[in-house]
Input
Amino acid sequence: MAIRTGLQYRERLRDGRSIYVNGERVKDVTTYPAFTRTVQTIASLYDLQHEARNLPLLTYPSPKTGQPAGLSFLRVESVEDVMRLMRAEEFRAEATFGLMGRMPDFMNALVTDAAEAAPNFGRREPRFGENVVRYYEECREQDLCLTHTLIDPQIDRSKGPGEQVDPEATLHFVRESDRGIVVRGARMLSTLAPFADEIWVGPFYPRKPGEERYALCFAIPIDTEGLKFICREPYDAGRSAFDRPVSSRFDEEDALAVFDDVLVPWERVFINGDIEASNSYLMYGARHALLQGAIRGIVKLRFMTGLACQVAEAIGRASAPHVQAQLGELVAKVELGNGLLQAAAHEVAAAAGKGMSLRILASTVWVFIPEAQVRAAELIRQLSGSGLILTPSEKDFRNPEISRYLEKYLQGTNLTAQERVRLFKLAWDMLGEQFGSRQLHYEWFYAGDPMFTRSRFYYSPAVNTYKAMVDRLLDR
Ligand SMILES: Cc1cc2nc3c(=O)[nH]c(=O)nc-3n(C[C@H](O)[C@H](O)[C@H](O)COP(=O)(O)OP(=O)(O)OC[C@H]3O[C@@H](n4cnc5c(N)ncnc54)[C@H](O)[C@@H]3O)c2cc1C
Output
């Protein structure tokens, strides 16, 4: 059976990986206090696919063995395929309320896209194209969990990697042997790194002639010798699920990936110095990964909309017309998002085998979702007033000296004080805590720099037809 259980997922994490947090090397990520609840969350996603009622929804027969494989590896050919994939992705995104942008499904989709782009990887050396297809199959058959890293260290963005004060800082090719290539330097960020089995190092920034040694794409296990991850401070500080409803479960972590003379075996090399392959990779469209991102983003928007409605209702403000207009705006955005997903399904199906550009999906992921998420967070903040701040801890409710005051003064509209405080704690965790601040930042930069991704629309051929309308009216 290709699909793994949560237990199998956990067991594989117990390797010799080098993960550093708060100045120490983590011995076992599955038992490290700040990680253990996220491991549990991801393990539960693996377990979900084994439940008999979920099997037809979340799996499909592996083209290699006929055994159930994760549906997020499905290469879609038709609208029916896309609809099936969407149902599965929606179900899995809902399991985490859309709060884990890099749940395993994202990279499952991205390696599926990579397999479709095999001719690009193999344009100079056909074996690299074959490697990427084999790697996709390996990920599917072993149900692997991947992190990825695309971005060079943010040292001086006005210069290329070779012009930096230290040209060695950016991940680069060092030498090759009959075993593979040796790489050195760093990449950022690598979300999910402590919880993944493998890292995908992909192309992203356009490389110029002369920057061949920075044009790389490969994938290796997290415990590869010389590969180290230095994590940001974890957001799960051990608080209860009452006090931190989301940061206690969904902190997917972000890390700097350091490659200290790491050997990448030839069978795992997809690009090595081929600038053309590196630069044209993104043009292949990444239809599965964009679709997964769009579904996850819309699911989260539904959750944020529900949260906004509950916050307003908890304090009796939902009856005010201007509050209803604000809530209605969010609901309308969800409807718009739902419609975009339906339209995207047709676009994704039509793009099968053609590598055509995905305008609906790109505008959904690059423009609509970041803006809608920021707006939802802003409205929840505005609607909540002081309730967002006055959220005593679970322990206060257990203290008989004060709990009766809390029960009396912090109750809400049709809510007990504990219910109301829990709700506002959720809102605070989503907006005010480190977890929530990162969520917003993440949505903004999810698909790259949003200014850059938007500016690409200006070069769309459709712009000429819009300008032609003005000419027509002005009789030009
Ligand atoms: C929480 C989080 C998780 C992430 N996870 C991952 C991950 O798992 N894997 C991964 O590969 N990446 C990840 N990223 C990185 C993400 O892809 C990048 O943040 C994104 O591509 C933007 O690049 P940057 O951070 O280097 O910002 P920059 O490109 O340095 O942008 C910073 C600012 O400079 C502006 N700017 C851009 N170009 C110009 C210009 N020419 N002139 C003036 N200003 C300009 C931008 O608009 C922006 O406001 C993550 C990022 C975040 C925030």
In short: The pocket of flavin-adenine dinucleotide is lined by residues 102, 148-151, 154, 157, 189-191, 254, 438, 441-442, 445, 448-449, 451-452 (CB under 6 Å).
